[in-house]
Amino acid sequence: MSETVVSLVAGARHGPFPGRLDPDTIARYAGATGDPTPSVLAGLTMPAVFPAILVSTPSEAARGDLPESVWQRVRGGVHGAHDIVLHRPLAPGESLQTWSQISAVRTTRAGTRVVMRFEQVDADGAIAVEQWWTMVLLGLQGVADLGSTPADHGFPDDARAHPLGSVTHHIDSDVAHRYAEVSGDWSAHHFDLEVARAAGFDFVFTHGLCTMAICTHRLLGVLGVDDPGRVRRVAVRFASPTPLECDLTVNAFGISEHSFAFEAVTNGTTTITHGRLELRS
Q1: Distance CA 88, CA 176 (A)
Q2: Which pTM does this prediction carry?
Q3: Are strands 163-171 and 246-256 parallel, antiparallel or unpaired?
Q4: Tens digits of residue pLDDT in 144-194
């Protein structure tokens, strides 16, 4: 295959896609992700990662801006990272409209990172949430860099000198099914071992965004924060899938008064790296 450089332009802005922070869906989401937060279970607040379940259709629209000539050179793809910035606390019951577009492209040794940006606006037209979903298109080379990536959330080396604690969460065999029911993501590798093996894994595994949600509320528990509305930003890199029927251990570290690093490990494998949680002051 020719290594001719492909130049992309910033994707069109797609939307708006309607969505609602439905209290019943939030309750089912909390059950699927094992969120024990009393204010969430009482329907008073919502999990910080919940807006991610509203970007599935918008992400498909943004991916459609990649030309067929690019997809023909891809040998696989993974959800490489996710970053959520909440501009204000969100309330159960309010509506959000989502806009999507491809905002950045970066080449790496493994392939090409394509970043999709989502703006989620409230009834007044103000941006309430921004999200960045990074796809890694494996084996794809020769695509020119484009746009700007979200703010760095790398794990600071000195954060390991400030451990804050660890907590373990059991990932049971039904997690993927419960999460798919609430998110609408029925991707076969979460349920069919042969499909998972075709993707290079000898196990079925839960959704990355489900693991991100679990890490977030477990980290808030370590920090003694009972109001997820205090979360300003949560970001992760997905290093490896989280298998079903395993124990996921979340390790927390301090960066500053309102900023924290975290990572997650299961069966001796790090599944979440470069985790960052920022709280409102």
Answers
A1: 29
A2: 0.94
A3: antiparallel
A4: 888 989 999 999 999 999 999 999 999 999 999 999 999 998 888 898 989
